[in-house]
Amino acid sequence: MLTVTTVNVNGLRAAAKKGFVEWLAATEADVVCLQEVRAELAQLPEGVGAPEGWHTVHAPAAAKGRAGVSVYSRHAPERIQIGFGGHGVPGAEEFDTSGRYAEIDLPGVTVASLYLPSGEVGTERQD
Fold first, then answer.
1. Which of 12, 44, 61, 107 supports an S-S bond with 67, CB 3.0-4.6 Å?
2. Distance CA 70, CA 34 (A)
């Protein structure tokens, strides 16, 4: 059985200072999905961006310090997708650089880490 854990880290650099690396080393999860990473791979401390024993996929937001999702997997992904890749869906290309969607295929299962907009009333997206 595959175990998947999802965590809103509210900033992965801050989470690293609060024990994320130790938590990741101790978790029994096969896949860990992170939201609100808020950093590019190059900004992450050593051992956080690509920790030993994990395959990592990072989808940072083009807007610095915002959103960002990651997937850490103990198993090598067969396929990786960042964003929705268009697929003919109007507006889907926004998610290719917004740091809101990363997907991996593992044998027999697809796992996605996503961070969705709040959908606040009265915003452009609600009109």
1. 61
2. 5
pTM for this entry: 0.89
Q: What tokens does 107 get?
A: 């044998």
Residue 14 CB neighbour total at 10 angstroms:
12
* Residues, the chain: 127
> What number is the average pLDDT over the span 7-33?
98
β-sheet bridge partners, residue 105: 79, 110
Q: Between 3.10.105.10, 2.130.10.10, 3.60.10.10, 3.30.70.890, what CATH number should domain 4-126 receive?
A: 3.60.10.10
Cβ(44)–Cβ(77) below 8 Å: no
Q: Quote the pLDDT of residue 90.
A: 73
CB atoms within 10 A of CB 109: 12
Q: CA distances (Å), 30 to each of 69, 73, 110, in order?
A: 17, 6, 13
